[in-house]
Amino acid sequence: MRLTIKNVSHRYDQVEALRDINLAIEPGEVVALIGPSGCGKSTLLSIIGGMLAPSSGDVLIDDQAKPEGCLNPLTYVFQDFALLPWRTVAGNISLVLEDHPLSKSERDVRIEEVLAQTNLSDFRDAYPKQLSGGMKQRVGIARALAVRPAVLLMDEPLSALDAQTRILLLDEFSDLFARTGMTAVYVTHNLNEAVRLAHRVVALRRRPGTIKEIHSIDIPIQDRREGMHELVSHEQALWNLIRDEAIAADKELENVA
Amino acid sequence: MSRDIEMQTAENTDNKVRFRATGFNPKANPVAAWASFFVVIALWQLGSSTGFISELAMPSPVAVAQALWQLIVSGDLWRHLAASLQRLAGGWIMGTVAGLIVGFMVGMFTWARSPGVALVSALFPIPKIALLPLFIIWFGIGEPSKFATIAFGVFFPTVINTFGGVDNVQRNLIRMGQSFDMPMWSVIRKIILPGALPTILSGFRISSSIAIILLIAAEMIGAQYGIGALVLSAGQLYQTDQLIAGVLVLSVLGLCVSWLLGRLDRWLLAWR
């Protein structure tokens, strides 16, 4: 499903967060948004997902090309998982299906399917407090996949996890994108995640966020491996692109403090 | 220097690091809890038996037990208790339902927030028992004024805890529901209500205690039956054994309500 971001700008009262963002995301493409703290990455993702009304501009989706069985074209994976502590793993997944015209058996089929995809079948009756951070994020992904979305919106999904879990989940994301050909917008601070997962990396300038450069990575996602020489080069190129912005943003924060 | 020699030198010359993280960790001891009851009752009985405590001012535990037994076998206790329970349940349910509705509206809707908080803040500190004469003028000396007093007293803490509970529901959970296009009613029923439930249930404990206090106060004015009426008439007739028996029944009533709420808590919040 094609996603077009057209002349999007946003202000929070006196603060200009985003200015004139234009971007087209093609079906099956994974786009990473990177940039210094406060550059408006998460704001842009919220606008794309319809969770924040932009001050000006529009986000357009090609509704005709929805995947089969899609209940929710734009679906989030949250940084802090956003799981209901009073529901089990299966209950959290079921939550997003219950208000759609699906029979109980259709719902159960979808739940079992995404539990299997995320290796959670043995934990269907566990409560979130019984799970590790990595498992909780897997539930978040399973929940998002259950509605068979056209575009997955991921807001720093690995930032709350420890380094080892992050590496494991990064491999799983890579496998998911390669296997399903799903369209995704991935916000991250971590350049390694961006070069492992994205077809294109959009580097934003510090506030007000504007697009500085769009960096393409032409290696198929399934062929990318941790520590791969070409990926390290891409990571270095991205760091060179945002380094000055990050230093300037850090100084601005120091001044505010 | 070898490792063994190093260890030996340390043992000879160094002081042991003192464990400092002691205390500030009180633990429950059920035996001590029951023992404290027995000690108080035993001292009380001893004081009465030796004449140290006047029988007229404070009857002995045995006399209180006999008075309680008399109330049970004569059927008076059940008549008084039934009347009190009806008023307690009726008033508490009315106040709680109204409090939950208003609390949810104040917690969720901008149009209800400011007027609701202002009115609740202004009316909550009023001692509700002071309004009983007004309720008697409005509703008469019979049951409605008693129900109204209890309901009014229960209403405010319920409103405050409900909107506090709604406020405390993590916004990211609500946004998650909205991001999956959950309808508003589903967000309320499946996210906000269960998320606010722990605070609402702790409010029930406060409101039930207030309800019992107001019940007794209301029954002391114009009631033929009820534990409050029993305590008042026993006091007027200097039947202190019956008076203390009535107070004991109130204590047991409070414990039963607390136990029931504890069960409700465990049942509804088993996930915690």
Automatic annotation (TrEMBL), chain A:
Pfam family, any one: ABC_tran
Coiled coil: none
GO MF annotation terms: ATP binding; ATP hydrolysis activity
Record's keyword annotation contains Kinase: no
Entry-linked InterPro entries: AAA+_ATPase (IPR003593), ABC_transporter-like_ATP-bd (IPR003439), ABC_transporter-like_CS (IPR017871), ABC_transporter_ATP-bind (IPR050166), P-loop_NTPase (IPR027417)
Source species, domain of life: Bacteria
Stretches assigned to the ABC transporter domain: 3-231
Keywords assigned by UniProt, alphabetized: ATP-binding, Nucleotide-binding, Transport
Keyword presence, Electron transport: no
SUPFAM superfamilies: P-loop containing nucleoside triphosphate hydrolases (SSF52540)
Similarity comment text for this entry: Belongs to the ABC transporter superfamily.
Full protein name: Nitrate ABC transporter ATP-binding protein
Gene source species: Thalassospira profundimaris
